[in-house]
Amino acid sequence: MAKLGVALLFILLNLYTYRYFANEDFIPERGDFANFPLQIEAWSCTNVQEMSDDILRRLGVTDYLLCDFVNPELEAVANVYVGYHQSQTRDTGGSDNVIHPPEHCLPGAGWDIIKSDVVPLDMGFGGEARRVIIAKGNSRNLVYFWYQSRGRVIARNHEKVLYMFLDRATKRRTDGSLVRFTIPVIHGDEAAAEQVFQSLAQSITPFLPDYIPN
Prior knowledge:
Strands 1, 2, 3, 4, 5, 6, 7, 8 and 9 form a 9-stranded antiparallel sheet that branches. The protein is an alpha+beta fold and 214 residues long. It is globular. It has helices spanning 2-21, 53-59, 102-108, 157-171, 190-204; strands at 39-40, 43-48, 63-71, 76-85, 112-120, 128-136, 139-149, 152-154, 176-184. Helix 1 (2-21) packs parallel to helix 4 (157-171). It starts with a helix and ends in a 10-residue tail after the last helix. It contains 5 helices and 9 strands.
């Protein structure tokens, strides 16, 4: 209860500070995902996907990459989504452009979360990711996702929210990104799906800082 009170006090203080002293967001420079490389080592994007205007409005995303990457050597395919939000706000009318946690969205799309863990990332930078196994009927997917925002790589939604408030007050920044990899689990072989993730993520993550400002 005491921790909740401290968190609420911090948020209220932050809102006051932002409202009266830092109410104009700083927008950092970055590259557009339209220029993201579609051929990286053995991986190539064979299907650049575009979301509908309705989905874009609901997500509140500023720029994004949504693509199926294929690796003929591994006989593997994986979906990659990186959504960049230039700023994150929520108004009193309920409309927002904050990053939506995948744990909330996946069940709404008919997927059951059957396993969920926070794991360290070893991609040339420190941080954590959430590793999830999801199921729909007989289909299984391995999903890795994390929030890569303002120099941090974190897995927990409450940390994302607290850092957003802190950075808004101290840096005038609320920009942030969700990075998500989705890999089919074929014939129940979770280890093979894990290998696909490691290969693709090691290839893609070095390019992300050009599109996700630190």
